[in-house]
UniProtKB/TrEMBL annotation:
This is Molybdopterin cofactor-binding domain-containing protein. InterPro entries: Ald_Oxase/Xan_DH_a/b (IPR000674), Ald_Oxase/Xan_DH_a/b_sf (IPR036856), Ald_Oxase/xanthine_DH-like (IPR016208), AldOxase/xan_DH_MoCoBD1 (IPR008274), AldOxase/xan_DH_MoCoBD2 (IPR046867), AldOxase/xan_DH_Mopterin-bd_sf (IPR037165). Residues 1-32 are annotated as: Disordered. Residues 39-145 form the Aldehyde oxidase/xanthine dehydrogenase a/b hammerhead domain. It holds the Pfam family Ald_Xan_dh_C. It comes from Streptomyces doebereineriae. SMART domains: Ald_Xan_dh_C (SM01008). Residues 1-16 have a biased composition (Low complexity).
Amino acid sequence: MSNEAATATTAAEAAPAPEPIPHGIGVSLPPADARAKTEGTFPYAADLWAEGLLWAAVLRSPHAHARIVSIDTSHAREMPGVRAVVTHEDVPGKPVHGRGRADRPVFASEVVRHHGEPIAAVAADHPDTARMAAAAVIVEYEVLDPVTDPEQAFEAEPLHPDGNLVRHIPLQHGDPSATGEIVVEGQYRIGRQDPAPIGAEAGLAVPRPDGGVELYLASTDPHADRDTAAACYGLEPERVKVVVTGVPGATADREDQGFQLPLGLLALKTGCPVKLTATREESFLGHVHRHPTLLRYRHHADAEGKLVKVEAQILLDAGAYADTSAEALAAAVGFACGPYVVPNAFIEGWAVRTNNPPSGHVRGEGAMQVCAAYEAQMDKLAKKLGVDPAELRLRNALATGDILPTGQTVTCPAPVAELLQAVRDFPLPDLPKDTPEDEWLLPGGPEGAGEPGAIRRGVGYGLGMVHMLGTEGADEVSTATVRVQDGVATVLCAAVETGQGFTTLARQIVQETLGIDEVHVAPVDTDQPPAGPGCRGRHTWVSGGAVERAAKMVRTQLLQPLAHKFGMSTELLQITDGKITSYDGVLSTTVTEAMDGKELWATAQCRPHPTEPLNEAGQGDAFVGMAFCAIRAVVDVDIELGSVRVVELALAQDVGRILNPAQLEARIEAGVTQGVGIALTENLRSARGLIRHPDLTGYALPTALDAPEIRIVKLVEERDVVAPFGAKAASAVPVVTSPAAVASAVRAATGRPVNRLPIRPQAAVVTDR
């Protein structure tokens, strides 16, 4: 052996062994797809290709409300390269669909009810040909006056065969004659927020030899999408398969079903694969948005600031179709008083159809709108009483064991006062005067038009709450299979990874339970048992719970032979870092040795405790669980220009249990930033039902330059005993709370009421200085 080789060998022997890579619950395990997404090689629906591919385009209504006199597709069909044109006449099955209620036509046939409603779809050899052919479909309209004011919908002629009223909830709790010494009132309006996904909708439909079709979509609820498509196509569900492709971000229902359904119809009609990639304008026109909301409130309190009664009227604009508006209204009415103890509450809630763009599920739906209103009321009450706003909130803070206005007892951890105290006591950021003037960050950006002398700083608070999982009797169930062979574990679960981190969590659960490092999560399709939609933290709770149960069943299969051999129970054995040991040290072996080449697998379900619908008085145990958040906002306002800069948002949140610290922090920061958009910039404007500027130039999303300093002051880990791992949903409650906190801070800086979101510049201008 040469000296060099000997030296190398000695150095290798002397080098310390590499430390094992941390894994399991509580570790910041990076996502498995992080590198592919960073390098741009991750496959999204827009990247898909198939032999003999055709391209699709959809003709959408230019009117918000019109009667269809005739549809002439002859010119489009005669164009070279056009392979098929479909309208309502070509839908062989159920002609309507919808997330919550099936009331939305696949293609408009007699009446157009909103701007952008699909009329026809075309398949052609080239995308440009498809678009030109769609434009060549001649539709004769009789334009009608649109109903765009939801208050007018009560008296207007029915816009839909089901009428204009989607749902009415008259909540009654306590004594209607109760009154307080102090009374404050207010009226509030919340704008229309768009989910604005990173990638617009795209998909591929491939016909099958059995006469069925496969849909490759960025679906967040593949089994529901499959069942809807099968009903529309007149096929058995087994002949329709949905394969989930990469989801480029989801803050709401990711896919517009009105986009998916024409795609499969064209594939079935042509016998060829058909691809459709929506433009950004089509994306804005097609998918659902956050409900614009009108709220009227009256708060009663005693001389000490304790709430006596809350009265409210809540009106949600559902747009043209019902979608999930009934569920959003239940959340709005149920949480109308916020995380406060209110002995008497009388809340009237309505969701109505209009000719405005459709509304539906967007993160924190219902809860976000009422949070902005009840927190504004708490600021008014504090001002009238001459009490510190944080102190007033503390006097009324909800806690475990208290009762909601729906009559439901809060059985989950509710550390509302602890959260508020944490953000209140956190040090405030430095004032601009403490830094050199050329480093000041003023409202309007660096070197903005504002003058330093016109800047006012404000500090405000927001307390928010959301429900987790479905409501009012929804059957929340998920199924998962865990299979182990040759030292590798595979998880099969139809829970879609939408950016919430489920695939990472599933790997951590199996690592923690079985001590196996290499864990793979299989791609999702509808050949697997259903797992439900990816929203409201349900996959962390329900699908994660199913994975945990399946992994524990495999663990029992693994340990039982060893326990039997040594005459002990499996509870006396533990798995740590790939090693199986007994409590007394007699047994010590590796997981690989114990497997001995066998394949072990188990399938399990998780189903949370049931809920019930609200009754005719708005009473009932409608929610599985709740999560809470407190945010203190610091803003600088140019009171001459009305421009606002969010300096800092300090947040405290109850998370139940931290499963992945880095992932949790990212989810919270993303939710807070989305809330800043609601507060200051995001509003999909329309005029007489027509969306104005349906693009990312006209719709102002907050960028990295707009994101404030986000200080996560405290994460309360008080486990919810009914939730797997004790964890709570993390991303929705910051979205709900941060707009209210920002508005509160602007009120503190300007003394103005700020009763509309997003905050308009004129609402922050002070003229009587």
